[in-house]
Amino acid sequence: MNKVGFFRSIQLKFIIIFILLLLISTQLISAYFARGLETELNDNFEQSINASVEILKVNLTQAFSKDRPEDGNGPTLYQEVQDIVTVNDTEDIHNIQVVNMQSRIVASSDNTGNRNIGKKMTNEIVRNAVLYGSQEEKKQYNSERNLVYVRAVPIFDDEETQVGALYIEASLEGVYSQLENINQIFMQGSALAITVSIFLGILVARTITKPIMEMRKQAQTMAREDFSRQVNVYGKDEIGQLAESFNNLTAKLQHSRALTEEERRKLSSVLSNMSDGVIAADRNGFITLLNDAAAELLGKDPEAAQGSLLLDVLQLDENEVDISELPDNGSMIIDFSDDEAIFLIRAKFSTVSDEEDDITGFITVLSDVTEQEKVERERREFVSNVSHELRTPLTTMRSYIEALSDGAWKDQEIAPKFLDVTRNETERMIRMVNDLLQLSRMDNQNHELKKGRTNFIDFFHHVIDRFEMNVTNEIELKRDLPNGTYDVWMDKDKMFQVLDNVISNAIKYSPEGGTIRFRAMKQQGQLLVSVSDEGMGIPRDKVDKIFDRFYRADKARSRKLGGTGLGLAIAKEIVEAHHGTIRAKSKEGKGTTVLFTLPLMNTKRRGQ
Ligand code: ATP
Ligand code: MG
User: Fold this and answer.
1) Looking at the CA of 553, which ligand is closest?
2) Which residue lies with its CA nearest to atom 20 of ligand 1?
3) For ligand 1, is residue 552 a contact (CB within 6 Å)?
4) 591 lines ligand 1 (CB under 6 A)
5) DSSP readout, 243-270?
């Protein structure tokens, strides 16, 4: 926030108001005072002049009434009048003229020689005084442009006969210069008062602006989320109360901020400890928050992903998907798979709304459903495989049974063959159903292994012996087995099943005159058993899949050989139930080796 300039400040406003108030009051006072003073001074002036005029009148009356000796000794009347005039010529009354009844000047205070004596005065008020005996006075400007007070009065002798008139002129300059002096004093006083009021204005304004400035600063600090400071409370007035409310507000804000911060921390710890990914986006679909799990699932940097579009991050096409419709659909599975691995994410969408039910944002919860989906897919595949595998023998049997019921049963040659086929198919189905049952029991972990200590080498010889008796096709069975004791804790029947399947596969896929090698050796505390043939082999990309249920590398061929594709799947379950591992190595056209490990028992314990 910018600082308030002096010309916009409360201080200046206060000063202006103070000065205006003062100016108005001094002007009003001085107007009334000057008017009163002027009248008073004028009245006083006139009274003093009139008093002088009365004395002059009395003196002149005496002079005019005096008897004078005939011989002319002593001063003449006009000399005496001139003396009176001269004596009374004061600073105030600076011009005194005495005229006779012809309006001619008989005595004058003008002492620049007796120039005016005998001259006729044409002044109107003098004429009126001579002619009508009237007393008049007025203010006028004289020849030197000074304001003067003039007065003319008739003069009588003691017999009340008019003998002439007296004219006086008194300067008013003294009065007005006195008034001016007083006005000047007034002006100086006002100037002083204005100067003092400016300082007072500043002082008063500061008592108001200082707390306000402090609150302004505090508000700025609060805007920077710093609530640690308090403003000073200078009094109990309105501003003091405002400051107190301000401090209350600060405390409340601090408290609610602390609460929000705590909630935020809780939320963020919940979010970061969640195994599900959470993404929050604003109503335009821009990401505002992305927890660690979401960042890891999507392979993004949480900081960098903020601000990008939710649809982009989820690799959804903006043109096909409308973000506001996503929450209605509940959830969707997004395929993030690449050439190397399948990766499926389930995204659940929901909206965040405000009090007016307007959408303010979206929350997306992500979970890795790759495994779940894989299992689901496998389950679907399994059901479809089972149905398919069961249908094939059933269809074959139906056609043979139909042929029999259509009359073939009478044919002594064909009937036994047809019945043979149906029996074979039935046996195949029973075998398959048994295999499936066994797998299902193993899946549900409700099979019990009847384990016991067994020397695997003896057991292995025994199994190979059984095959040796039945083997045809000139296949050579070669044993590469060590002497000695290799004890394994195992279920003999189940292990027989494993070897039976692996060996019959080797025989099944061996060419005529091929050799099958049996090996067993100790490796890293475990027994490694292998069965190798010189058969057709398995393509490299299919080797790992032969342990999957119903998987057959060459469907047509293995079905012809009577397999269902469950043998190795069962073998794998059994080996794993014995804490071992099973795998296959193969070279197309050269042969296949199936290897499995079993944990060896501690030989030292033997005989204890
Ligand atoms: P089943 O054992 O249930 O009678 P199967 O032998 O076809 O049927 P598996 O033993 O599970 O099923 O074998 C799966 C597939 O692996 C076979 O169909 C075959 O394609 C391939 N396979 C297994 N062993 C060999 C081998 N020694 N040489 C070549 N291919 C093999
Ligand atoms: Mg098999």
Assistant:
1) 1
2) 553
3) yes
4) no
5) HHHHHHHHHHHHHHHHHHHHHHHHHHHH
- The preferred substitution site among 436, 505, 534, 561 for testing ligand 1, maximizing ligand atoms within 8 Å of CB, is 505
At 392-430, the pLDDT tens digits run 889 999 999 999 999 989 999 999 999 999 999 999 899
Higher confidence at residue 322 or residue 608? 322
Location of structure tokens 């929450």: 327
Q: What is the dihedral of CA 567, 573, 578, 580, to 10 degrees?
A: 90
Domain boundaries, the chain: 12-178, 274-368, 374-443, 452-599
Q: What distance in angstroms lies between residue 507's CA and the mean position of ligand 1's atoms?
A: 10
pLDDT in the model for residue 93: 82
Q: Which atom of ligand 1 is nearest to the CA of 570?
A: 11
Which ligand sits closest to the CA of 568?
1
Catalogue the long-range contacts made by 474-479 (C-beta closer than 8 Å, 24 or more residues apart): 474/512, 474/513, 475/507, 475/510, 475/512, 475/513, 475/514, 475/515, 475/516, 476/513, 476/514, 476/515, 476/516, 477/515, 477/516, 477/518, 478/515, 478/516, 478/517, 478/518, 479/517, 479/518
Whether 559 and 425 have beta carbons less than 8 Å apart is answered as no
Say if ligand 1 is within 6 A of residue 553 CB.
Answer: yes
CATH number for the region 274-368 comes to: 3.30.450.20
pLDDT of residue 491: 95
CB 463: neighbour CB atoms within 10 A? 19
Name the CATH superfamily, with its identifier, for domain 452-599: Histidine kinase-like ATPase, C-terminal domain (3.30.565.10)
Matching fold, domains 12-178 and 274-368:
yes
Q: Tell me which DSSP letter residue 104 carries.
A: B
Q: Which fold has domain 374-443?
A: Helix Hairpins (1.10.287)
Q: Report the atom number in ligand 1 closest to the C-alpha of 509.
A: 28
* H or E stretch at 26: helix 10-65
Decide: 554 in ligand 1 pocket, CB within 6 A: yes
**pTM exceeds 0.90:** no
CA of 565 to the centre of ligand 2 (A): 6
User: In the chain, how many H helices and how many E strands?
Assistant: 15, 17
- Residue 559 Cα: closest atom of ligand 1: 7
- Whole-number Å distance between alpha carbons of 19 and 22: 5
How many beta carbons lie within 10 A of that of residue 398, not counting itself?
12
Q: Which of 438, 558, 594 to mutate to test the pocket of ligand 1 (most atoms within 8 A of CB)?
A: 558
Highest mean pLDDT pick, 343-347, 527-531, 549-553: 527-531
Q: Is the pLDDT of residue 167 over 70?
A: yes
| CATH hierarchy code of domain 12-178 | 3.30.450.20
Q: What angle do CA 136, 137, 140 make, to 5 degrees?
A: 135
**Closest approach atom of ligand 1 to CA 536:** 29
